[in-house]
Amino acid sequence: MPESHIIPWSDGTWTHAPQHTLETADAHLDVTAVEGSDAWRHTAYGFVHDTEHALLAPLAVGEAIDVSFRAPWDGQFDQAGVFIRIDDEHWVKTGVEFADGHLGLGAVVTDIRSDWSVGYVDDWLESEITVRVSRWTDALIIRAKADDGPWRLVRVAPFDGEADAAAGPFLAAPMRADLTVRFTRWERSAADVDLH
């Protein structure tokens, strides 16, 4: 992995304020979501939700960010990971989501309308999960891993290299109150140069 630099939690700006935040003595950030928070645009469900909690800092072409986190995955549609935003209609959320009794690893790529790709990672339920997003000139390369396991390619998604974008940790709790995610790391480094 390229040399990385910790991003202080205070360097980010929330898209929507969470219910509660607490920086712990070991520099982790515990964040509690507002019930009903989510991010989605139109496709299949017919609604627009723009209430996610995303702590964002600029992400330039040629940079990557890593976000690590743990959560008590037990609420329907509990989700956390990385959010990458250009504007209200152009963004990506990627990470894990607990739905129908399974933990899913995937991404929602939104270009006016959202799509969703997901696969089960139930063996990650008790793990510290890390999501890595590299920004190329025309794409985001998304990888994830559990604990010290191998990186898994999640998605290669088109993304406008000319646009100003910001990225960072995110969480949402569409169906319940009191989801608290512990974010343990937020780092910036050079983007991955290879897909494989």
UniProtKB/TrEMBL annotation:
Protein name (record): DUF1349 domain-containing protein
Top-rank lineage group of the source organism: Bacteria
SUPFAM superfamilies: Concanavalin A-like lectins/glucanases (SSF49899)
